[in-house]
Design a protein that fits this description.
Uridine Diphospho-n-acetylenolpyruvylglucosamine Reductase, domain 3; five-stranded antiparallel beta sheet; 20% strand; Uridine Diphospho-n-acetylenolpyruvylglucosamine Reductase, domain 2; 479 residues; alpha+beta; Alpha-Beta Plaits; seven-stranded antiparallel beta sheet
Protein backbone atom coordinates (compact mmCIF):
# COMPACT_ATOMS: atom_id res chain seq x y z
CA UNK A 1 0.00 0.00 0.00
CA UNK A 2 1.02 3.60 -0.59
CA UNK A 3 1.79 5.51 2.59
CA UNK A 4 0.10 8.65 3.87
CA UNK A 5 3.24 10.70 3.37
CA UNK A 6 2.92 10.12 -0.38
CA UNK A 7 -0.78 11.03 -0.37
CA UNK A 8 0.15 14.24 1.45
CA UNK A 9 2.56 15.16 -1.34
CA UNK A 10 -0.23 14.91 -3.90
CA UNK A 11 -2.65 16.76 -1.62
CA UNK A 12 -0.20 19.65 -1.36
CA UNK A 13 -0.04 19.73 -5.15
CA UNK A 14 -3.74 19.37 -5.99
CA UNK A 15 -5.52 20.85 -2.98
CA UNK A 16 -8.46 19.39 -1.03
CA UNK A 17 -10.66 18.85 -4.11
CA UNK A 18 -7.89 17.03 -5.93
CA UNK A 19 -7.38 14.07 -3.58
CA UNK A 20 -9.95 11.58 -2.28
CA UNK A 21 -8.68 9.22 0.41
CA UNK A 22 -11.87 8.06 2.13
CA UNK A 23 -12.24 4.38 1.28
CA UNK A 24 -16.04 4.57 1.09
CA UNK A 25 -15.62 7.11 -1.72
CA UNK A 26 -12.90 5.10 -3.45
CA UNK A 27 -14.55 1.69 -3.38
CA UNK A 28 -17.06 2.26 -6.23
CA UNK A 29 -14.17 3.25 -8.50
CA UNK A 30 -11.93 0.33 -7.53
CA UNK A 31 -14.03 -2.32 -9.31
CA UNK A 32 -14.95 -2.72 -12.95
CA UNK A 33 -18.45 -2.23 -14.40
CA UNK A 34 -19.12 -5.97 -14.57
CA UNK A 35 -17.94 -6.56 -11.01
CA UNK A 36 -15.35 -9.07 -12.14
CA UNK A 37 -12.19 -7.21 -11.14
CA UNK A 38 -11.64 -5.66 -7.75
CA UNK A 39 -8.68 -3.47 -6.92
CA UNK A 40 -7.50 -1.21 -4.13
CA UNK A 41 -6.14 2.31 -4.06
CA UNK A 42 -5.07 4.58 -1.22
CA UNK A 43 -6.41 7.63 -3.05
CA UNK A 44 -8.04 9.01 -6.15
CA UNK A 45 -6.15 11.93 -7.69
CA UNK A 46 -8.41 14.40 -9.52
CA UNK A 47 -6.52 17.17 -11.31
CA UNK A 48 -8.62 19.97 -12.78
CA UNK A 49 -6.37 21.06 -15.66
CA UNK A 50 -3.75 19.77 -18.05
CA UNK A 51 -1.08 21.59 -16.02
CA UNK A 52 -2.22 19.77 -12.89
CA UNK A 53 -2.18 16.43 -14.71
CA UNK A 54 1.38 17.12 -15.88
CA UNK A 55 2.47 18.08 -12.36
CA UNK A 56 0.79 14.97 -10.93
CA UNK A 57 2.50 12.70 -13.43
CA UNK A 58 5.89 14.31 -12.75
CA UNK A 59 5.47 13.80 -9.02
CA UNK A 60 4.36 10.20 -9.53
CA UNK A 61 7.45 9.57 -11.67
CA UNK A 62 9.65 11.11 -8.97
CA UNK A 63 8.07 8.94 -6.27
CA UNK A 64 7.82 5.80 -8.41
CA UNK A 65 4.05 5.63 -7.95
CA UNK A 66 2.01 3.82 -10.66
CA UNK A 67 -1.11 5.59 -11.95
CA UNK A 68 -4.32 4.11 -13.32
CA UNK A 69 -6.08 6.66 -15.56
CA UNK A 70 -9.85 6.54 -15.25
CA UNK A 71 -12.84 8.26 -16.83
CA UNK A 72 -16.36 6.93 -16.39
CA UNK A 73 -15.07 3.49 -15.29
CA UNK A 74 -17.22 1.74 -17.90
CA UNK A 75 -14.47 -0.58 -19.16
CA UNK A 76 -15.75 -4.04 -20.07
CA UNK A 77 -12.32 -5.67 -19.70
CA UNK A 78 -11.05 -4.36 -16.37
CA UNK A 79 -8.98 -1.72 -18.13
CA UNK A 80 -9.46 1.02 -15.53
CA UNK A 81 -9.32 -1.06 -12.35
CA UNK A 82 -6.33 -0.53 -10.03
CA UNK A 83 -4.19 -3.50 -8.95
CA UNK A 84 -5.52 -5.49 -6.01
CA UNK A 85 -2.36 -4.93 -3.96
CA UNK A 86 -2.97 -1.18 -3.64
CA UNK A 87 0.32 -0.34 -5.33
CA UNK A 88 -1.21 2.29 -7.67
CA UNK A 89 -3.29 5.42 -7.36
CA UNK A 90 -6.33 6.17 -9.51
CA UNK A 91 -5.88 9.21 -11.73
CA UNK A 92 -9.40 10.49 -12.40
CA UNK A 93 -10.02 12.85 -15.29
CA UNK A 94 -13.64 13.53 -14.33
CA UNK A 95 -13.01 17.09 -13.11
CA UNK A 96 -11.65 17.99 -16.54
CA UNK A 97 -15.11 18.21 -18.09
CA UNK A 98 -15.14 21.38 -20.20
CA UNK A 99 -16.04 21.61 -23.85
CA UNK A 100 -13.37 24.14 -24.72
CA UNK A 101 -14.86 25.04 -28.08
CA UNK A 102 -17.45 23.83 -30.57
CA UNK A 103 -17.58 25.18 -34.10
CA UNK A 104 -20.32 24.36 -36.59
CA UNK A 105 -18.23 26.09 -39.29
CA UNK A 106 -15.23 23.84 -38.67
CA UNK A 107 -17.34 20.80 -37.70
CA UNK A 108 -15.06 20.44 -34.70
CA UNK A 109 -15.41 20.18 -30.94
CA UNK A 110 -12.48 20.44 -28.54
CA UNK A 111 -13.37 18.52 -25.39
CA UNK A 112 -11.53 17.71 -22.22
CA UNK A 113 -11.14 14.09 -21.26
CA UNK A 114 -13.83 14.11 -18.57
CA UNK A 115 -16.66 15.28 -20.84
CA UNK A 116 -19.45 12.70 -20.75
CA UNK A 117 -20.49 11.46 -24.18
CA UNK A 118 -24.15 12.41 -23.78
CA UNK A 119 -23.12 15.96 -22.79
CA UNK A 120 -21.19 16.28 -26.04
CA UNK A 121 -24.21 14.93 -27.94
CA UNK A 122 -26.41 17.63 -26.42
CA UNK A 123 -23.92 20.43 -27.07
CA UNK A 124 -23.43 19.39 -30.69
CA UNK A 125 -27.19 19.18 -31.22
CA UNK A 126 -27.63 22.70 -29.85
CA UNK A 127 -25.17 23.90 -32.51
CA UNK A 128 -26.94 22.05 -35.31
CA UNK A 129 -24.34 19.30 -35.47
CA UNK A 130 -23.81 15.87 -33.96
CA UNK A 131 -21.00 13.66 -32.76
CA UNK A 132 -21.63 10.36 -34.54
CA UNK A 133 -20.64 7.83 -31.92
CA UNK A 134 -23.12 6.35 -29.48
CA UNK A 135 -23.25 3.40 -27.11
CA UNK A 136 -25.25 2.15 -24.18
CA UNK A 137 -22.96 3.79 -21.60
CA UNK A 138 -23.24 7.26 -23.19
CA UNK A 139 -24.55 8.72 -19.92
CA UNK A 140 -21.36 7.84 -18.03
CA UNK A 141 -18.59 7.07 -20.55
CA UNK A 142 -16.12 9.93 -20.97
CA UNK A 143 -14.29 11.21 -24.03
CA UNK A 144 -10.87 10.32 -22.65
CA UNK A 145 -11.90 6.74 -21.97
CA UNK A 146 -13.57 6.39 -25.35
CA UNK A 147 -10.38 7.52 -27.07
CA UNK A 148 -8.14 5.37 -24.90
CA UNK A 149 -10.13 2.27 -25.83
CA UNK A 150 -10.85 3.27 -29.45
CA UNK A 151 -14.55 2.82 -28.77
CA UNK A 152 -16.94 1.78 -31.51
CA UNK A 153 -20.67 1.65 -30.92
CA UNK A 154 -23.68 1.56 -33.19
CA UNK A 155 -22.62 4.03 -35.90
CA UNK A 156 -19.26 2.58 -36.94
CA UNK A 157 -20.71 1.28 -40.20
CA UNK A 158 -20.99 4.83 -41.51
CA UNK A 159 -18.63 6.94 -39.42
CA UNK A 160 -15.94 4.61 -38.10
CA UNK A 161 -14.50 4.10 -34.61
CA UNK A 162 -12.96 6.81 -32.46
CA UNK A 163 -9.79 6.58 -34.56
CA UNK A 164 -11.75 8.05 -37.45
CA UNK A 165 -13.42 10.75 -35.34
CA UNK A 166 -10.40 12.09 -33.43
CA UNK A 167 -8.69 14.91 -35.33
CA UNK A 168 -6.17 15.75 -32.62
CA UNK A 169 -5.22 15.00 -29.02
CA UNK A 170 -3.60 16.63 -26.04
CA UNK A 171 -1.94 14.20 -23.65
CA UNK A 172 0.48 14.04 -20.75
CA UNK A 173 3.26 11.51 -21.34
CA UNK A 174 4.84 9.39 -18.57
CA UNK A 175 7.67 11.86 -17.96
CA UNK A 176 5.16 14.65 -17.32
CA UNK A 177 5.67 16.39 -20.67
CA UNK A 178 2.60 17.60 -22.55
CA UNK A 179 1.99 16.46 -26.11
CA UNK A 180 0.00 19.26 -27.74
CA UNK A 181 -1.53 17.79 -30.86
CA UNK A 182 -4.98 19.38 -30.85
CA UNK A 183 -4.59 21.09 -34.22
CA UNK A 184 -6.90 19.33 -36.65
CA UNK A 185 -4.51 19.12 -39.59
CA UNK A 186 -5.60 17.23 -42.69
CA UNK A 187 -1.97 16.82 -43.72
CA UNK A 188 0.84 16.31 -41.20
CA UNK A 189 3.89 14.33 -42.27
CA UNK A 190 6.20 14.76 -39.27
CA UNK A 191 6.95 11.09 -38.75
CA UNK A 192 5.19 8.70 -36.40
CA UNK A 193 1.56 9.59 -35.69
CA UNK A 194 1.65 10.05 -31.92
CA UNK A 195 -2.10 10.67 -31.88
CA UNK A 196 -2.83 7.24 -33.31
CA UNK A 197 -0.41 5.58 -30.89
CA UNK A 198 -2.31 7.09 -27.98
CA UNK A 199 -5.75 6.16 -29.35
CA UNK A 200 -6.53 2.64 -28.18
CA UNK A 201 -3.49 2.48 -25.89
CA UNK A 202 -5.72 2.13 -22.79
CA UNK A 203 -3.73 4.69 -20.81
CA UNK A 204 -0.50 2.70 -21.01
CA UNK A 205 1.41 5.31 -23.03
CA UNK A 206 -0.07 8.62 -21.91
CA UNK A 207 -3.04 10.32 -20.29
CA UNK A 208 -5.45 11.87 -22.77
CA UNK A 209 -6.43 15.30 -21.40
CA UNK A 210 -8.32 16.75 -24.38
CA UNK A 211 -9.21 15.99 -27.97
CA UNK A 212 -10.40 17.65 -31.16
CA UNK A 213 -13.38 15.66 -32.42
CA UNK A 214 -15.05 15.59 -35.80
CA UNK A 215 -18.69 16.61 -35.95
CA UNK A 216 -21.13 15.89 -38.77
CA UNK A 217 -24.36 17.44 -39.97
CA UNK A 218 -27.40 17.03 -37.80
CA UNK A 219 -30.03 14.54 -38.86
CA UNK A 220 -32.89 16.28 -40.65
CA UNK A 221 -34.97 13.12 -40.90
CA UNK A 222 -34.49 9.44 -40.22
CA UNK A 223 -36.19 6.09 -40.51
CA UNK A 224 -35.72 3.29 -38.02
CA UNK A 225 -36.85 -0.19 -38.94
CA UNK A 226 -37.09 -3.52 -37.14
CA UNK A 227 -36.99 -6.59 -39.36
CA UNK A 228 -37.44 -10.24 -38.50
CA UNK A 229 -35.26 -12.71 -40.42
CA UNK A 230 -34.64 -16.44 -40.28
CA UNK A 231 -30.84 -16.49 -40.17
CA UNK A 232 -27.78 -14.23 -39.82
CA UNK A 233 -27.09 -15.03 -43.47
CA UNK A 234 -30.42 -13.40 -44.34
CA UNK A 235 -29.41 -10.43 -42.20
CA UNK A 236 -26.24 -10.06 -44.24
CA UNK A 237 -28.21 -10.32 -47.48
CA UNK A 238 -30.47 -7.58 -46.16
CA UNK A 239 -27.46 -5.40 -45.32
CA UNK A 240 -26.10 -5.71 -48.84
CA UNK A 241 -29.52 -4.93 -50.29
CA UNK A 242 -30.03 -1.74 -48.28
CA UNK A 243 -26.45 -0.65 -48.99
CA UNK A 244 -27.11 -1.07 -52.72
CA UNK A 245 -30.42 0.79 -52.59
CA UNK A 246 -29.71 3.42 -49.92
CA UNK A 247 -25.97 4.01 -50.10
CA UNK A 248 -24.19 5.78 -47.27
CA UNK A 249 -27.45 6.87 -45.64
CA UNK A 250 -27.34 3.57 -43.71
CA UNK A 251 -26.34 4.79 -40.25
CA UNK A 252 -26.78 1.64 -38.21
CA UNK A 253 -27.32 -2.06 -38.82
CA UNK A 254 -27.63 -4.28 -35.75
CA UNK A 255 -28.42 -8.00 -35.54
CA UNK A 256 -29.98 -9.58 -32.46
CA UNK A 257 -30.80 -13.20 -31.62
CA UNK A 258 -34.38 -13.79 -30.52
CA UNK A 259 -33.43 -15.14 -27.10
CA UNK A 260 -31.38 -12.00 -26.46
CA UNK A 261 -34.39 -9.87 -27.41
CA UNK A 262 -36.40 -11.91 -24.91
CA UNK A 263 -33.97 -11.00 -22.15
CA UNK A 264 -34.67 -7.30 -22.74
CA UNK A 265 -38.43 -7.75 -22.89
CA UNK A 266 -38.34 -9.63 -19.60
CA UNK A 267 -35.94 -7.31 -17.84
CA UNK A 268 -36.64 -3.74 -18.99
CA UNK A 269 -40.05 -2.44 -18.01
CA UNK A 270 -42.11 -0.98 -20.82
CA UNK A 271 -40.31 -2.66 -23.72
CA UNK A 272 -42.12 -4.78 -26.29
CA UNK A 273 -41.20 -6.49 -29.52
CA UNK A 274 -41.52 -4.13 -32.49
CA UNK A 275 -42.95 -6.95 -34.65
CA UNK A 276 -45.61 -9.57 -33.92
CA UNK A 277 -43.90 -12.50 -35.61
CA UNK A 278 -41.39 -14.43 -33.51
CA UNK A 279 -38.38 -14.91 -35.74
CA UNK A 280 -35.04 -16.50 -34.81
CA UNK A 281 -33.15 -13.29 -35.60
CA UNK A 282 -33.87 -9.58 -35.72
CA UNK A 283 -32.31 -6.63 -37.50
CA UNK A 284 -32.41 -2.97 -36.42
CA UNK A 285 -31.73 -0.51 -39.24
CA UNK A 286 -31.42 3.27 -39.17
CA UNK A 287 -31.44 5.40 -42.33
CA UNK A 288 -30.49 9.07 -41.94
CA UNK A 289 -30.76 12.17 -44.13
CA UNK A 290 -29.01 15.45 -43.47
CA UNK A 291 -31.65 17.28 -45.54
CA UNK A 292 -35.38 17.08 -46.21
CA UNK A 293 -35.13 15.92 -49.81
CA UNK A 294 -37.71 13.57 -51.30
CA UNK A 295 -38.19 10.72 -51.13
CA UNK A 296 -37.59 10.74 -47.39
CA UNK A 297 -35.79 8.00 -45.49
CA UNK A 298 -38.98 6.20 -44.47
CA UNK A 299 -40.13 5.89 -48.08
CA UNK A 300 -36.70 4.76 -49.18
CA UNK A 301 -36.45 2.18 -46.41
CA UNK A 302 -39.96 0.94 -47.16
CA UNK A 303 -38.99 0.45 -50.80
CA UNK A 304 -35.88 -1.53 -49.88
CA UNK A 305 -37.84 -3.70 -47.47
CA UNK A 306 -40.48 -4.41 -50.09
CA UNK A 307 -37.72 -5.82 -52.25
CA UNK A 308 -36.41 -7.80 -49.28
CA UNK A 309 -39.83 -9.44 -48.88
CA UNK A 310 -39.94 -10.23 -52.59
CA UNK A 311 -36.54 -11.94 -52.35
CA UNK A 312 -37.58 -13.93 -49.27
CA UNK A 313 -35.01 -12.22 -47.06
CA UNK A 314 -37.41 -10.64 -44.54
CA UNK A 315 -40.19 -12.38 -42.59
CA UNK A 316 -41.80 -9.39 -40.86
CA UNK A 317 -40.94 -5.73 -40.44
CA UNK A 318 -42.00 -2.50 -38.79
CA UNK A 319 -40.87 1.05 -39.51
CA UNK A 320 -41.10 3.46 -36.58
CA UNK A 321 -44.05 5.82 -37.08
CA UNK A 322 -42.52 8.64 -35.04
CA UNK A 323 -39.48 9.63 -32.98
CA UNK A 324 -40.85 8.08 -29.80
CA UNK A 325 -41.19 4.74 -31.50
CA UNK A 326 -37.75 5.06 -33.08
CA UNK A 327 -36.27 5.69 -29.65
CA UNK A 328 -38.17 2.67 -28.30
CA UNK A 329 -36.56 0.49 -30.96
CA UNK A 330 -33.10 1.79 -30.04
CA UNK A 331 -33.82 1.45 -26.34
CA UNK A 332 -34.03 -2.30 -26.89
CA UNK A 333 -30.61 -2.33 -28.51
CA UNK A 334 -29.04 -0.14 -25.85
CA UNK A 335 -30.45 -2.37 -23.08
CA UNK A 336 -28.95 -5.59 -24.39
CA UNK A 337 -25.78 -5.58 -22.26
CA UNK A 338 -27.68 -4.69 -19.09
CA UNK A 339 -30.29 -7.38 -19.78
CA UNK A 340 -27.69 -10.03 -20.57
CA UNK A 341 -25.92 -9.19 -17.33
CA UNK A 342 -29.18 -9.68 -15.42
CA UNK A 343 -29.54 -13.27 -16.67
CA UNK A 344 -26.76 -14.50 -14.44
CA UNK A 345 -23.18 -15.70 -14.87
CA UNK A 346 -21.83 -15.53 -18.41
CA UNK A 347 -18.65 -15.12 -20.37
CA UNK A 348 -18.90 -12.22 -22.81
CA UNK A 349 -16.79 -11.85 -25.94
CA UNK A 350 -16.33 -8.69 -28.00
CA UNK A 351 -15.01 -10.12 -31.24
CA UNK A 352 -14.74 -9.34 -34.92
CA UNK A 353 -14.39 -11.54 -37.97
CA UNK A 354 -14.62 -10.70 -41.68
CA UNK A 355 -18.22 -9.68 -42.41
CA UNK A 356 -18.76 -12.45 -44.96
CA UNK A 357 -17.82 -15.07 -42.34
CA UNK A 358 -19.89 -13.61 -39.51
CA UNK A 359 -23.24 -15.38 -40.19
CA UNK A 360 -21.64 -18.83 -40.14
CA UNK A 361 -19.56 -17.91 -37.09
CA UNK A 362 -22.62 -16.80 -35.12
CA UNK A 363 -24.49 -20.04 -35.77
CA UNK A 364 -21.70 -22.60 -35.80
CA UNK A 365 -19.67 -21.31 -32.87
CA UNK A 366 -22.76 -21.03 -30.66
CA UNK A 367 -23.78 -24.61 -31.49
CA UNK A 368 -20.24 -25.87 -30.96
CA UNK A 369 -19.94 -24.10 -27.60
CA UNK A 370 -23.21 -25.58 -26.36
CA UNK A 371 -22.16 -29.05 -27.47
CA UNK A 372 -18.68 -28.78 -25.97
CA UNK A 373 -19.83 -27.30 -22.65
CA UNK A 374 -23.10 -29.09 -21.75
CA UNK A 375 -25.76 -26.99 -20.09
CA UNK A 376 -24.46 -23.70 -21.42
CA UNK A 377 -26.34 -21.52 -23.89
CA UNK A 378 -24.70 -19.23 -26.40
CA UNK A 379 -25.86 -16.44 -28.68
CA UNK A 380 -24.72 -13.12 -30.08
CA UNK A 381 -25.77 -9.62 -31.03
CA UNK A 382 -24.11 -6.54 -32.43
CA UNK A 383 -22.84 -4.59 -35.37
CA UNK A 384 -23.02 -7.03 -38.26
CA UNK A 385 -22.18 -4.32 -40.79
CA UNK A 386 -18.65 -3.88 -39.44
CA UNK A 387 -18.05 -7.52 -38.49
CA UNK A 388 -18.27 -6.96 -34.73
CA UNK A 389 -20.64 -8.91 -32.51
CA UNK A 390 -20.86 -9.61 -28.81
CA UNK A 391 -20.83 -13.36 -28.29
CA UNK A 392 -22.01 -14.68 -24.93
CA UNK A 393 -21.71 -18.11 -23.34
CA UNK A 394 -24.05 -18.34 -20.35
CA UNK A 395 -23.62 -20.64 -17.39
CA UNK A 396 -26.02 -23.59 -17.02
CA UNK A 397 -29.35 -22.71 -15.44
CA UNK A 398 -29.26 -22.92 -11.68
CA UNK A 399 -25.60 -21.90 -11.40
CA UNK A 400 -25.56 -20.07 -8.07
CA UNK A 401 -21.87 -19.29 -7.76
CA UNK A 402 -20.93 -17.33 -10.87
CA UNK A 403 -17.32 -16.59 -9.87
CA UNK A 404 -16.71 -20.26 -9.14
CA UNK A 405 -18.13 -21.30 -12.53
CA UNK A 406 -16.00 -18.72 -14.30
CA UNK A 407 -12.92 -19.80 -12.36
CA UNK A 408 -13.54 -23.43 -13.27
CA UNK A 409 -14.65 -23.04 -16.88
CA UNK A 410 -13.60 -19.57 -17.99
CA UNK A 411 -10.10 -20.27 -19.27
CA UNK A 412 -11.21 -23.29 -21.28
CA UNK A 413 -14.24 -21.54 -22.80
CA UNK A 414 -12.16 -18.45 -23.53
CA UNK A 415 -9.64 -20.51 -25.45
CA UNK A 416 -12.42 -22.32 -27.34
CA UNK A 417 -14.13 -19.10 -28.47
CA UNK A 418 -10.94 -17.20 -29.23
CA UNK A 419 -9.51 -20.11 -31.22
CA UNK A 420 -12.68 -20.05 -33.33
CA UNK A 421 -12.28 -16.30 -33.85
CA UNK A 422 -8.67 -16.60 -34.94
CA UNK A 423 -9.51 -19.53 -37.22
CA UNK A 424 -12.01 -17.25 -38.95
CA UNK A 425 -9.35 -14.56 -39.41
CA UNK A 426 -10.76 -12.32 -36.69
CA UNK A 427 -9.76 -10.33 -33.61
CA UNK A 428 -10.40 -11.20 -29.96
CA UNK A 429 -11.10 -7.53 -29.22
CA UNK A 430 -13.20 -5.48 -31.60
CA UNK A 431 -14.10 -2.41 -29.54
CA UNK A 432 -13.70 -3.02 -25.81
CA UNK A 433 -9.91 -3.23 -25.68
CA UNK A 434 -7.65 -5.77 -23.99
CA UNK A 435 -7.47 -4.46 -20.42
CA UNK A 436 -6.46 -7.19 -18.02
CA UNK A 437 -9.15 -9.64 -19.11
CA UNK A 438 -7.63 -10.51 -22.49
CA UNK A 439 -3.95 -9.87 -21.91
CA UNK A 440 -2.89 -13.52 -21.64
CA UNK A 441 -5.00 -14.47 -24.65
CA UNK A 442 -3.46 -11.65 -26.66
CA UNK A 443 -0.06 -13.13 -25.89
CA UNK A 444 -1.16 -16.67 -26.72
CA UNK A 445 -2.74 -15.82 -30.06
CA UNK A 446 -0.53 -13.02 -31.40
CA UNK A 447 2.63 -13.28 -33.46
CA UNK A 448 5.99 -12.58 -31.78
CA UNK A 449 6.30 -9.54 -34.05
CA UNK A 450 3.10 -7.97 -32.69
CA UNK A 451 3.95 -8.65 -29.05
CA UNK A 452 7.52 -7.45 -29.51
CA UNK A 453 6.35 -4.21 -31.09
CA UNK A 454 3.80 -3.58 -28.32
CA UNK A 455 6.43 -4.09 -25.62
CA UNK A 456 8.99 -1.93 -27.42
CA UNK A 457 6.54 0.96 -27.78
CA UNK A 458 5.51 0.65 -24.13
CA UNK A 459 9.14 0.66 -22.98
CA UNK A 460 9.98 3.67 -25.13
CA UNK A 461 7.11 5.76 -23.77
CA UNK A 462 7.01 4.44 -20.21
CA UNK A 463 10.37 2.92 -19.23
CA UNK A 464 9.44 2.83 -15.54
CA UNK A 465 6.17 0.99 -16.25
CA UNK A 466 4.09 3.39 -14.15
CA UNK A 467 1.16 3.96 -16.53
CA UNK A 468 -1.80 1.61 -16.05
CA UNK A 469 0.27 -1.40 -14.99
CA UNK A 470 -1.07 -4.84 -15.75
CA UNK A 471 -3.18 -3.73 -18.72
CA UNK A 472 -2.92 -4.44 -22.45
CA UNK A 473 0.79 -5.32 -22.67
CA UNK A 474 1.48 -9.04 -22.04
CA UNK A 475 4.15 -9.80 -19.47
CA UNK A 476 7.29 -11.66 -20.65
CA UNK A 477 6.02 -14.94 -19.19
CA UNK A 478 2.74 -14.53 -21.09
CA UNK A 479 4.23 -14.35 -24.55
Amino acid sequence: MIGQHIIDRFAALLGPKGVTSEQDDITPWASDWRGRYHGAAAAILSPASTAEVAATVKLAAELGVPLVPQGGNTSMVGGATPPADGSALILSLRRMNRIRSLSSDDNLAVCEAGVILSVLHDAAEAAGRRFPLSLGAKGSATIGGLISTNAGGTQVLRHGTMRALVEGVEAVLPDGSVFDGLDALKKDNRGYDIKQLLIGAEGTLGVITAASLRLVSAIASRAVGWIGVETPADALRLLRLVEERLGDSVEGFEVIANDTLGFVLGHVHGTRSPIETRTPWHVLIEIDHADLSEPGPSDRLEGALAEAFERGIAVDAAIAANEAQAEAFWRIRESLSESEKAQGPALQYDISVPVAKMPAFMIETAAAAEATFPGTTASSFGHLGDGNVHFHVRAPKGTSDGPAWIAAQGQTINAFVHDAVVAAGGSISAEHGIGQMKRAELARLSSPARIGALRAIKTAFDPKGLFNPGKLIPLPDEG
